[in-house]
Write a structure and sequence with these properties.
This protein is of the alpha/beta class. The chain has a single domain, classed as NAD(P)-binding Rossmann-like Domain (Rossmann fold, 3-Layer(aba) Sandwich). It contains five helices and eight strands; from the N terminus they run E-H-E-E-H-E-H-E-H-E-E-H-E. Strands 3-2-1-4-5-6-8-7 form an eight-stranded mixed beta sheet, sandwiched between helices. Helix 4 links the parallel strand 5 and strand 6. It starts with a strand and ends with a strand. The relative contact order is 0.15.
Length: about 210
């Protein structure tokens, strides 16, 4: 399988790349700083570019079977501004499947099901900026015809890989407070062969 990974040098993205290469998939990464990609593998293609450049996106996405986006907010609008470009390029290439990393803030609130967690008292974060960015991406994917899945972890420490965690469609598993980077990467990567959560947000926690 040919996989495009965006956000490949981040905490979750780098582990997704490692898992895909271990399974001998052909992986393409689009990165601004190739020197940050410490992996050397015959199945890895590194393209220097920017997710906010339509031509860079088109080049990176060409021939892919699935797109995995582990882009984060980083205090900018890159996340929401890049998604329309990604969606357009996927349409042009005829690619249907995209898996993204979101945040538990965009899951439905258990206390007030008509709103999202970040809009309710269920969220303890003082700033909603990151959640608002992820919300924009969620809205864009909802409006698309793509087969999307948004993996929504709560507090994300580096932690250790346990391989045992709870997942639930559209809400955070009850009482969930954290999930490691490694387990989040594992679940996200496994969605390339799983259709159970197409067009769903997935809450994940221990």
């Amino acid at each position: 399988m040919k996989i495009l990974v965006l956000g490949a040098t981040g905490r979750v993205g780098s582990q997704i790349v490692a898992k895909a290469l271990k399974d001998q998939h052909h992986v393409t990464v689009l990165v601004r700083h190739p020197e940050k990609c410490q992996v050397h593998d015959e199945h890895l293609t590194i393209i220097q570019g920017n997710v906010l450049n339509q031509e860079d996106i088109k080049l990176a996405i060409h021939g892919a079977d699935v797109v995995i986006s582990a882009l984060n907010t980083d205090g900018t609008n890159t996340l929401s501004e890049s998604m329309p470009l990604i969606i357009e390029a996927m349409y042009e290439e005829g690619i249907k499947r995209i898996i993204t990393i979101g945040t538990a803030g965009i899951l439905q609130s258990r206390l007030a099901p008509s709103v999202l967690r970040y809009q309710s008292i269920e969220s303890r974060r003082k700033s909603t900026r990151a959640a608002e960015e992820h919300h924009r991406v969620y809205s864009l994917l909802q409006e698309s015809t793509l087969d999307w899945t948004i993996v929504c972890p709560t507090y994300l420490p580096d932690g250790e890989h346990l391989g045992v965690y709870r997942v639930e469609r559209d809400v955070l598993p009850e009482g969930g407070t954290e999930i490691s980077v490694s387990d989040t990467a594992e679940f996200t990567y496994n969605q390339i062969n799983n259709s159970s959560y197409i067009r769903y947000r997935v809450g994940i926690s221990y």
